[in-house]
Amino acid sequence: MWQIFHKLGSPKWFFGIATRLMPWLLAGALALLAVGLVWGLAFAPKDYLQGNSYRIIFIHVPSAFLAQSVYIMMATAGVVTLVWRMKLADVFVKAVAPVGLVLTFLALFTGAVWGKPTWGTWWIWDARLTSMLILLFLYGGAIALDRAINDEKSAARAVAVLVLVGVVNIPIIKYSVEWWNTLHQPATFKLTEKPSMPAEMWVPLLLSVLGLYLLFGWLACLRMQTEILAREQRTRWVKEHVLARRAG
Amino acid sequence: MHPIRKKRLTIVLFLIAGIAVAVGLTTYALRQNINLFYDPSQISAGEAPVDVRIRAGGMVEEGSVLRDPESLQVEFRVTDFSASVPVVYVGILPDLFAEGQGVVAMGKLDGKGRFVADQVLAKHDENYMPPEVADALAKSAKDRAEYGAKYGEGSSNAPTY
Questions:
Q1: Does residue B128 sit at the A interface (CB-CB below 8 Å)?
Q2: How confident is the model over A110-164, as pLDDT tens digits?
Q3: Quick check: B116 contacting A, CB < 8 Å?
Q4: B105-126, pLDDT tens digit by residue?
Q5: Domains of chain A, with CATH numbers?
Q6: What residue of A is the nearest CA neighbor of B93?
Q7: Which chain B residue lies closest to A114 (C-alpha atoms)?
Q8: With an 8 Å Cβ cutoff, is A124 touching chain B?
Q9: HEC sequence for chain A
């Protein structure tokens, strides 16, 4: 088992796997997002109270969901960096942090646009919104810290520690609406219960979430490949790869 | 697993556990400040400070909304089904404001148990449904009420429709 684990850490091996996976990830992402978003934004029934403005949920929920998932993945990779000193884990953290930042911003922005007509305010300092803003700063902090330290290895460890410290924020985001009084409503999707919306609303939402996961997978592969090429530019396999690409 | 890695893993786990405990205790100590609003039970129990800007939140009690025909003044009661607090507000209410819906009001308690609000926000719940379903639900509730009035509550041989 440990052997597979260590093989996974080889940048060259990952590069090959990613090249083979990426077309599938992209095709799946585009198909699911096209169906989910067109269905959700154009054909799903409107809500009895909010009318059409609720449709922002088809962008808001997937991006908020992914923003938190990506952070958990980054924290897991951070543990691998600190304990096993695996290069690929650091490559992952560095490659996906900006993606997480954009997703968090998208969740906050769409939430504000929805909040104005629904609640009557763009922003309120309730526990859910504030903890989500902290997540945005954590992503920004991880990116900044990585840029600030020149030595690759020290940067990797510092960022891993920062990401791990911030991981306590994830359960706070998730349970903020249950632990405290907030303006933000509790989750519509729960693991143990039926979603409190009809199927013609939650099916497109689920498709959009899955589609965004695949799109994230594709983006992560692409960004990791770029990072690997930059880091390993002096190795023979990268030189051969570049020459082969240029010839082909 | 290599002993050095085992040691590092232990340190990492201790780091996470320590931070979790620290943050947990801090948020527990600050829970009253993290809560966005006081609910009506807390206000009627005297837990909310008087004449300080606070937020009050709950459901708008059915049949409690009184609009002043001469001005923008609205009076309503906010309830959590165990206590309720009267609210006075002058201004434009959000579109989703309605009886039976959640609200969060910002303002001050006036010492006579009345909450004078200067901002009212609508709180949306986690339920979504198409308008036809909402209409059907409202209609069946109305039918049931009419049926109950006609044949008496809890009639066992109620027709199924």
A1: yes
A2: 999 999 888 888 999 989 999 999 999 999 999 999 999 999 999 999 999 999 9
A3: no
A4: 999 998 788 899 999 999 888 7
A5: 23-243 (1.20.120)
A6: A120
A7: B124
A8: yes
A9: CHHHHHHHCCHHHHHHHHHHHHHHHHHHHHHHHHHHHHHHHHHCCCECCCEHHHHHHHHHHHHHHHHHHHHHHHHHHHHHHHHHCCHHHHHHHHHHHHHHHHHHHHHHHHHHHHHHHHCCCCCCCCHHHHHHHHHHHHHHHHHHHHHHCCCHHHHHHHHHHHHHHHCCHHHHHHHHHHHCCCCCCCCCCCCCCCCCCCHHHHHHHHHHHHHHHHHHHHHHHHHHHHHHHHHCCCCHHHHHHHHHHHHC
